[in-house]
C-alpha cells in the first residue's frame, strides 16, 4: 500500500474505500467488510452519509487491529460552531464505536467553520483525533483558513478526476502543505468517463480497466483517492492498482482531458451556498 505523510507526521494510506450514497445499512456494512478483507485500510464516511453505525459494525467485526485502520468522518453544516461541533463529534464517535478518529474533516465551507475548527484543534490536542482537515474548500477559503488558525489543515478533499483535475488547487495545497484527496474519482460516470477512448486505450496496453487507470493516475499525482462500490469484484478491481505505472506520455495524454470545470456543481456559487446550508440530516 502506498502512503502519504500528512503535515503533522501522521501516515495515511493513499487508496481508501468511500461509502457515500450507500444508504442501506446492511449493504454498507457488507461493502466495508469486503473492502477491509480485500486489503483497504482507509475508510471514509461522514455524518451526513447516515451510515457511520454500519461502518462501525464492519470495523468491529473485521478482526483487524484498530491501529492498522485509518478512519475518516466529517462534520456537516448544521453542526458548525464550537459547541455544536464538539457535540457532533461525540455523536459520530458513538455511532462508529471508536475511541479515537484518524481524520476529522469539515464537510463544507459554510456556517461557522472557524468555530468548528477551534473545537477540532482542541480534539487534536486531547488526542481524540490524529489529524484534522477540510472538504470542498476552494482556494480562497483554504488559504484564509491556513493563515488564521493554529493548526494548518492536514488535507482538503475535493472533486478531482480526469475531466476536473484541479491543477491550480493542487499547487495551492502543495504550497501550504495540505494533502489533496479526491472525491468523485470516476465522476460517477458523468461525461462518458467509463467510455473515454483515451483512458480506455491506455488501460488496454496494461490490461487494466478505465477505473484502474484513473486511480493509478491520481496516485501518481500524489492524490489520495477513495473509490466506492458495493460489488466485491469492483472493490477488488479498484484495489489492484499497485502493479503498474503510467508513463509520462500516459500522464500527459490524461492531462489533456481536463475541462477545468466541475461535473457536479453549477457556476452559481451563491445558489450552492444556499442549497448546502439548508440541508438537514437526522444526525
Automatic annotation (TrEMBL):
<keyword id="KW-0521">NADP</keyword>
<keyword id="KW-0560">Oxidoreductase</keyword>
<dbReference type="InterPro" id="IPR018170">
    <property type="entry name" value="Aldo/ket_reductase_CS"/>
</dbReference>
<dbReference type="InterPro" id="IPR020471">
    <property type="entry name" value="AKR"/>
</dbReference>
<comment type="similarity">
    <text>Belongs to the aldo/keto reductase family.</text>
</comment>
<feature type="domain" description="NADP-dependent oxidoreductase">
    <location>
        <begin position="15"/>
        <end position="174"/>
    </location>
</feature>
<feature type="active site" description="Proton donor">
    <location>
        <position position="49"/>
    </location>
</feature>
<feature type="domain" description="NADP-dependent oxidoreductase">
    <location>
        <begin position="197"/>
        <end position="258"/>
    </location>
</feature>
<dbReference type="InterPro" id="IPR023210">
    <property type="entry name" value="NADP_OxRdtase_dom"/>
</dbReference>
<dbReference type="Pfam" id="PF00248">
    <property type="entry name" value="Aldo_ket_red"/>
</dbReference>
<dbReference type="GO" id="GO:0016616">
    <property type="term" value="F:oxidoreductase activity, acting on the CH-OH group of donors, NAD or NADP as acceptor"/>
</dbReference>
<feature type="site" description="Lowers pKa of active site Tyr">
    <location>
        <position position="74"/>
    </location>
</feature>
<dbReference type="InterPro" id="IPR036812">
    <property type="entry name" value="NAD(P)_OxRdtase_dom_sf"/>
</dbReference>
<protein>
    <submittedName>
        <fullName>Aldo/keto reductase</fullName>
    </submittedName>
</protein>
<feature type="binding site">
    <location>
        <position position="107"/>
    </location>
    <ligand>
        <name>substrate</name>
    </ligand>
</feature>
Amino acid at each position: 500500500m502506498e502512503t502519504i505523510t500528512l503535515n503533522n507526521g501522521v501516515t495515511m494510506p493513499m487508496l481508501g474505500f468511500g461509502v457515500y450514497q450507500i444508504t442501506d445499512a446492511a449493504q454498507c456494512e457488507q461493502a466495508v467488510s469486503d473492502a477491509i478483507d480485500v486489503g483497504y485500510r482507509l475508510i471514509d464516511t461522514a455524518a451526513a452519509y447516515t451510515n457511520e453505525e454500519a461502518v462501525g459494525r464492519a470495523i468491529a467485526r473485521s478482526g483487524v487491529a484498530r491501529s492498522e485502520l485509518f478512519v475518516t468522518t466529517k462534520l456537516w453544516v448544521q453542526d458548525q460552531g464550537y459547541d455544536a461541533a464538539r457535540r457532533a463529534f461525540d455523536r459520530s464517535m458513538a455511532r462508529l464505536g471508536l475511541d479515537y478518529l484518524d481524520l476529522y474533516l469539515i464537510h463544507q465551507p459554510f456556517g461557522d467553520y472557524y468555530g468548528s475548527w477551534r473545537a477540532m484543534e482542541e480534539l487534536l490536542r486531547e488526542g481524540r483525533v490524529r489529524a484534522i482537515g477540510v472538504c470542498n474548500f476552494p482556494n480562497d477559503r483554504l488559504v484564509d483558513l491556513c493563515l488564521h488558525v493554529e493548526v494548518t489543515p492536514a488535507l482538503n478533499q475535493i472533486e478531482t478526476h480526469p475531466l476536473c483535475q484541479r491543477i491550480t488547487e493542487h499547487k495551492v495545497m502543495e504550497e501550504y502543505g495540505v494533502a489533496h484527496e479526491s472525491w468523485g474519482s470516476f465522476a460517477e460516470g458523468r461525461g462518458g468517463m467509463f467510455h473515454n477512448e483515451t483512458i480506455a486505450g491506455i488501460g488496454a496496453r496494461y490490461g487494466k480497466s478505465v477505473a484502474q487507470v484513473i486511480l493509478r493516475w491520481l496516485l501518481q499525482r500524489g492524490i489520495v483517492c477513495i473509490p466506492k462500490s458495493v460489488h466485491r469484484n469492483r472493490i477488488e478491481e479498484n484495489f489492484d492498482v499497485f502493479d503498474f505505472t503510467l508513463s509520462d506520455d500516459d500522464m500527459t495524454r490524461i492531462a489533456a482531458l481536463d475541462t477545468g470545470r466541475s461535473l457536479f456543481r453549477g457556476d452559481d456559487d451563491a445558489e450552492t451556498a444556499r442549497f448546502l446550508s439548508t440541508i438537514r440530516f437526522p444526525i
